[in-house]
Known about the structure:
Distance between the termini: 18 Å
Radius of gyration: 22 Å
CATH topology of the largest domain: Naphthalene 1,2-dioxygenase Alpha Subunit, Chain A, domain 1
Order of helices and strands: HEEEEEEEEEEEEHHEEEEEEHH
CATH architecture of the largest domain: Alpha-Beta Complex
Amino acid sequence: MANVDQVLIDDWYVVARIEDCPPNSIKSVRLLGEDLVLWRGSTSESPILAWQDRCPHRGTRLSLGKIVDDTFTCKYHGWAYNSAGQCVNIPSSGAQRPPTSICIKTYQCQECWGLVWVSLGNPSHDIPPFPEWDDPHYRKIYFGTHSHHFYSSPFRVFESIFDTSHFSFVHPGSLGTDTQPEVREQIVEVKADSITIGNMEITQSSIGSTGIDSRVSYTYKIYPPLTLYGYKESIKGKMTFLNTVTPIDEEESLVWGQLAMNYGHEIPKLEIAQFYDEAMSQDIPVVGSQRPKLLPLLSQNDSNTPWTSEVHAPCDQASIAYRRWLKKLGITYGVC
């Protein structure tokens, strides 16, 4: 995790869906340049554990190993570790008890909103709220049939998520319409722990609609630094969502999320998930083409950047507030 800002190390990130981690499962993931292994014991009540994907004996990937009686066994020499990461058996040593100093590096892990969240540090805040998750009037649907892989800075990707002005051109006929691209002046409120973006009205075609365009209103709340809770209100009802970006490294990211809707119960969940798969597939090449790949925070007068300064439009006021916020946090990873 060289050169990763402490504020990023101490945050929460989604690394998997809970349903992808059944009992006795092993899954390798990567977060902020660190290789991790997720595993669960023999029952559905067993918690999902997040460990460094490295056996301290000879550095072998633990994710190549297996789970035996709720202990994790390394494939190389059979060293076994209990759920606390403590080595409990070294087969080559016979009955001799392993030293208590032999431990796997473990990380904090939570299961929340159908997702697996991991922190590599010591977060001072909890996972952002999603109040509609426990409301029986709302359907819960994954944001796509899978996570969405971007080869771009996590901050570039996240900025695209709350940028409604691109909907009319990257997603015409679904999230926007190129015949009515206007975006009303936004109301941006910056607080110590969040940024709220309101008054975002655009014209779009809703999922499962007859193709008739309608005016909808978005409200977003950004939690530092890569998670967004938001909702969309239309004549059909209210859709809420939690979107979050996982930084694999400085120029590679995953987008995860959940939706909750109090309308559209007749629309199959798969159709809605595939709608967002298509939207993300339209975003991926566009965001991936941005140069520089890292999100620019330096001023146009800084001689250390080879890129000309980006220019802004009135609809970019939320983006400007977000970039200023990142700079105030002292973020250096994934930005330039």
